[in-house]
Design a protein that fits this description.
By secondary structure, the chain is mainly alpha-helical. 87% of the residues lie in helices and 0% in strands. It has seven helices and no strands.
Length: 163
């Protein structure tokens, strides 16, 4: 039994390192493609890196940036920022904070673009800022609610696995 474990441990480590190495390769290629302006190919590389569990939080954050800045697809950007926050973890708190800030900005832009009558009839910048602040607060509430649901889902999954 010990000899079997001694054989499997290096094999498992090698598989992990190769997967991580391949994921890093996709992540690096995504950075280069994003820099060169090829947003679609960059997004594909970041997806592959995240699928290989290589910096998923940062990969989703980069995808969100590309959807927001290059492709002007704000709803997709918001979704990937949420994914980045969920995958950032405690060790990458700065990634989570950056994604939260971007998510708030995207949500405010989405609300402003939603032809909200109250926003359309706001007569000055102060009124618009107040409306945006209210909408950001609602978004925070929704984000907390989604996090609570995710926590409950995780707890239920753990409970089922323990049975």
């Amino acid at each position: 039994m010990k000899s079997m474990l001694l054989l499997l441990c290096p094999l498992a480590m090698m598989t992990f390192l190769l997967g991580c190495s391949k994921g890093e390769s996709f992540f690096s290629r995504g950075l280069l493609l994003a820099e060169s302006g090829d947003a679609e190919e960059a997004i594909e590389c970041f997806h592959k890196a995240a699928a290989l569990d290589c910096r998923p939080g940062e990969s989703y954050y980069r995808i969100g940036q590309l959807y927001e800045d290059r492709l002007e697809q704000l709803q997709l950007a918001a979704w990937f920022y949420q994914r980045a926050i969920l995958h950032a973890g405690e060790s990458r708190k700065e990634d989570s904070t950056a994604a939260e800030i971007r998510l708030k900005n995207v949500n405010a832009r989405l609300a402003a673009n939603a032809h909200d009558p109250s926003f359309q009839h706001a007569s000055n910048a102060k009124e618009k800022d107040e409306i945006i602040a209210i909408l950001e607060e609602r978004c925070e509430d929704l984000t907390k609610w989604v996090q609570k649901l995710n926590d409950e889902n995780f707890a239920l999954r753990q409970m089922l696995l323990d049975k």
